[in-house]
Structures are given as structure tokens and as C-alpha cells.
Specification:
Layout lengths: L1 H28 L4 H6 L5 H11 L5 H13 L13 H36 L4 H15 L2 H15 L11 H31 L2 H8 L4 H31 L1 H6 L5 H10 L3 H29 L1 H5 L3
Amino acid sequence: MHKYIFKRLLQLIPVLIGVVFIVFTITYITPGDPATILLGEQAPEEQVKQLRRQMGLHLPFGAQFFNYLSDVLQGDLGYSLTSGRPVTVEILERFPNTFILSTGAVILAVLIGIPVGIISATRQYSKIDNISMLGALLGVSLPNFWQGMMAILLFSVWLPIFPSSGFDTWQHAVLPIVTLGTSSAALITRMTRSSMLEVLRQDYIRTARAKGLDERTVVIKHALKNALIPVITVIGLQFGFLLGGAVLTERIFSIAGLGRLIVDSIREQNFTVVQGGVLFIAVIFSLVNLLVDILYAYLDPRIKAQYK
């Protein structure tokens, strides 16, 4: 396992360097001059040129990229063009809200999706299965922003149970977490059902039943562990997507999260914050994928056997 984890960590290095290159290139070719943004449109041309030299913007693309990569490797993501604060500080201020929102949504999705998927698979074509698949279809089809607005209308306006904005208490977190977790729960339900149906048709499952094991033991102990491998993939990908894709939910519920920070920075042409935010999300996403790979090795002994 140590060799496997070390190999996966080494594989993250070129991936992250590639992400830095892509993000830097996109911001480099994006219209807009950071020096002009800092000094204003009416600033004298000479001052703009001087600031560009101070920021290293007069250098060719390759030199600018390697300077930025060197700063990133030292943990320096630069300073915000609008507030003048370190980008790392602004990201770390916003990230806890996004992390709580995404983690809560994934936990909710897992608590709903896996049990419902198991029940649907073990009772294929029954009323429970049909209702579950209809609910999963609705969860995938209905966009999050529409669900968020309906949740506010139902539970904040008509029935004032939960607040409609902010992220200060657990009551504030209920509606956005439910809104964000619905589509993920639907995907996990469908994947769990599909994977369980495939595993339940295997010969070793029939053998376990022929030995006289009760159905609960067959499903939970023998089938579920093997069926979870593709499900874990979906869970890991969903968590990564939620970290970077909770923008609409954060905006609807007025949550000061990382996704909202990046979108606002794009609108303001705050390139340093955009670069730092996307890179931060890429690192988190890569670490989540590493965790998924470690869980693979735990669930599938064949992976561990390759590194003994």
C-alpha cells in the first residue's frame, strides 16, 4: 500500500503542473491588463508601463510562467488586484463554507443514494424500484438553481422554517445542502442499483445463496463490497465537482464560498484570484482522487497484490 500511495503521489506532480500551465495560459490570453486594472483607465501610460515592469508583465510568456510556477511552489499565489490582500488568505476565508456545503451534500447523497440503490436492486421492477428510479430521474433532471428557488419559496417564504440566505448556523446550511445534494443522490442511487444488479448475477453470489446464507448476509457482506468500487468513483467525482461547481447554489443562498469568489473575480478581471482559486480546487480534486484510489486498493485485493 505504501508503494501504491507513493506512486499515486508522484503521478500528481505532472498533473498539477499541467493544471498550473493551463490556468496560467487561459488568464494570459484573456483580454485585460492587470496593471491598468490596478491603476485605473485614466492612469498615465508611463505609470502603467512602470507597474507592468514591476509585476514582470513585460517578460515573454515562458518567463512569466516559470516565475509564477516558482512562486506557486513556494506557496505564494500572489495578491488580489482589487483588494490588495494575499490570494491565499482570500481563498482560505471562503473555502470553509464551500467545504462544509460540499461535504454535507455528499454525505446526504451517500446516506440516501446507497441504501435506496441497494433496495432498488434487490427488489428489481417492484413498486419501490419504480418509485426510486422516478425520484432519481427527477433529481438528475431538475437543475439545482430551480430546486434552490423552490426550496426558498416553500421553506422560507410560505413556511418560514429555514432562513433563505447566509451560512452562519446549521439552520442556514439545511436548504443549500439539500439542494446541492439532490442531484448527487440521484446519480449515486442509479450507479449503486446498476452495480448491485451486475454483482448479484455473479456465480459466487449464487454459490453463497446455495450454501444457505441469509439474503441480508449475501447482499451486505458479499455483494455490496464489490459493487461499491464504481460507486466510490462517482462519489469522489461528485465531491470534486461540488467543490468547484457550487457557484449557483452559493449565489442563490448568498453564501460567501470559493466558487462565488472565483466567478466574481472573473467578472472583475481579478486574474490572480482566478488563477489561485482554480489551482486550489485542482489540488483538492487531485487529493480526493488519491483517496478514491486508496479506497480502491482496500476494496480490491488485486490492486494491493500488484505492489507486494
